[in-house]
Amino acid sequence: METTIVKAYGAAASDADLNQMDIQRRVVTAKDVEIEILYCGVCHSDLHTARNDWGGTVYPAVPGHEIVGKVTKVGSEVKRFKVGELVGVGCLVDSCRTCDSCKKDLEQYCLTGFTGTYNGKEKYLGTQTFGGYSEKIVVDDHFVLKVPGNLDAAGVAPLLCAGITTWSPLKHWGVKKGSKVAVVGLGGLGHMAIKLAKGLGASVTLFSRSEGKTEDAKKLGADAVVISTDPGQMKSVRGKFDLIIDTVPYVHDVNPYVGTLTINGTLVLVGYLGELDPMLNSVPMIMGRKSVSGSLIGGIAETQEMLDFCGKHNIVSDIEIIKMQDINQAYERMIKSDVKYRFVIDMASL
Length: 350
Prior knowledge:
Layout: E1 3-10, E2 19-26, E3 32-41, H1 44-50, E4 67-74, E5 86-89, E6 92-94, H2 100-103, E7 115-116, E8 136-140, E9 145-146, H3 153-156, H4 162-172, E10 180-184, H5 188-199, E11 203-208, H6 214-220, E12 224-227, H7 231-236, E13 241-246, H8 255-258, E14 261-269, H9 283-286, E15 291-294, H10 300-313, E16 319-323, H11 327-335, E17 342-346
Parallel strand pairs: 10-11, 10-13, 11-12, 13-14, 14-15, 16-17
Antiparallel strand pairs: 1-2, 3-4, 3-8, 3-17, 4-5, 5-9, 6-7
């Protein structure tokens, strides 16, 4: 298969800084869309992959799965997109499309495993996939999304991971006007959970460990802030919430939050992967049919639904724009949570 050379930024090894490199992209096939990348959001998964924190990274690794850009070419069978259109690509660039999950528009749960935008398997070239820290990308048209023209393009980029990761559970658990939703953690995911839950008409509370986040949370649309380290405040919200979205990316005690769920309420983990420590106490769960669940990004139809919703309600991420050359410093700042609330790379800098 024919390829073209594309300028990118990536890591050559787990202990190496990201640097400029050349990668190969396939030439557009009948079903493909070629996209000139304008903006790419920076996600914690990018850093974990670049540094092989989860194991299994194939080098060189080019991260980036919050991509917004312009269509520059379309394949002969592509009907949905035209050259010049503003489009997005999220965490998925392929799946089997025939399993039960894919047939239900749940490509993120593809039973044979979806193809990630980076560090996945490039089916045409037999190499790893390369992400959005690059000049352009070629993606099967099924996995390309239409971006509403009224939204700030840079602010849209994080919707494609941080946005859909919080939208999917809000929709799955039926959040609507009058629902009571709480959010644990105020970062890239947490700030989107607040905005989207508020957009859906819910009453929204932020759980925070410190008073310092109160003003920011209320600016984002939170109705209340509960300090989770204050026993009195925690007691005041016992049995209150229909849904809690827990975005904290490291191991922490979720038991205190379970007690704040109403009967049939659910706490959904979207930030942390791994074993819970301390363990879950099942008593409050059994006594109120409460659930602790998990959720992963969203399917393509659901992501498009979210983008359309954001277009209608004028919702984008709060971002700090950086140059591609500043990515290594951005990673260090991200580890310290020193960003409100998502870095976005202006790809013109590449």
